[in-house]
Amino acid sequence: MQSLELFEATEQSQPQRLGPAAMVLRGVALPHVRELMPAIEVIEAMSPFRHMVTPGGFTMSVALTNCGALGWTTDRRGYRYTAVDPETGAPWPAMPEAFARLANEAAAVAGFDGFKPDACLINRYLPGSRLSLHQDRNERDYDAPIVSVSLGMRAVFLFGGHSRTDPAVKVSLHHGDVVVWGGADRLRYHGVMPLKDEPHALLGSQRINFTFRKAG
Ligand code: MD6
Ligand code: FE
Question: Quick check: helix, strand or coil at residue 25?
Fold first, then answer.
C-alpha cells in the first residue's frame, strides 16, 4: 500500500512521453483551476455548449463551445473554423488572457516555444460521452502544437498512430493534466473512451477539456 502511494505520487509529477513530440504534463493546470472555472461560466453564457452534428449525420455525445478569434464547428457540410458562432451569429467569446498564458507555458515545457493560440475548443463530457478516433487536421498549418487541458472526471484517452487502424495506447487523464503534442505526432489519431461516472470533488459528474490551437 505504502509503495503504491509512492508510485502514484511519482506518476503525478513526471511528464509522460507519448511520442517524439507528444507528452502528458501531470497536474500542471491545477494552479489555474480557480481562474479557469469562472471563465467557463462567462463563455457559456455567451456561446452555450451544444451538441453538433458531424458531416456523416451523427450528433456528437460531447457538447462543445469555443473561445478565441476562431472556433471549431461541424455540421452536415463539414468541419471548419469560423469567426462567428453559428448558433448566436456573434463572434465567439474572447479567449481569456489566463487561458492563453497557460497554453503558452505548457507548450514551452514540452519544447514548443512561442505558442500563441487563436482558438480554444471547449468540450463537455457527461457519463457515457465519448469521442471517436480522429485526427486534428482543420488547422491551417501543422507546425504549431495542440495543448489539451483536462478538468473534472477522469477520462481514458486513446492515442493511436497515423492510420486509423494502428494500435492505440490508453492514457488516463485526470483533473489538471495537460497534453501537448505537435511535430511528428501532430496528426496521430486519438479519441476518448466512454466516460465512467466517477464524480469529481469540484466538478461533479462531468469532464471539461480545452484544446488550444493555432487554427488560422
Ligand atoms: C479530449 N481531445 O481530450 C479530446 N485533440 O476531450 C482531443 O481531441 C485532442 O486532447 C488534439 C490534441 C489533444 C487532444
Ligand atoms: Fe482532437
Answer: strand
* CATH number of the domain to which 170 belongs: 2.60.120.590
Residue 140 DSSP symbol: S
Cβ contacts of 192 within 8 Å, gap of 6 or more: 62, 125, 129, 130, 131, 155, 156, 157, 158, 209
For residue 11 the three cell numbers come to 506518476
**Residue 35, phi then psi, degrees to nearest 5:** -90, -35
Number of structural domains the chain divides into: 1
Mutate to test the pocket of ligand 1, among 60, 190, 213 (most ligand atoms within 8 A of CB): 190
Average pLDDT over residues 6-12: 47
Residue type, 158: L
pLDDT confidence of 11, banded at 50, 70, 90?
very low
Among 148, 151, 174, the mutation site with the greatest number of ligand 1 atoms within 8 A of its Cβ is 148
Q: How far apart are CA 153 and CA 194, in angstroms?
A: 12
Domain containing residue 82: 2-213
Question: Does the Cβ of 211 fall within 6 Å of ligand 1?
Answer: yes
Q: Which H or E run includes 33? A: helix 33-46
| Cell 503504491 sits on residue | 4
pLDDT in tens, 30-60: 999 999 999 999 999 999 999 999 999 999 9
Q: Which three cell numbers stand for residue 150?
A: 483536462
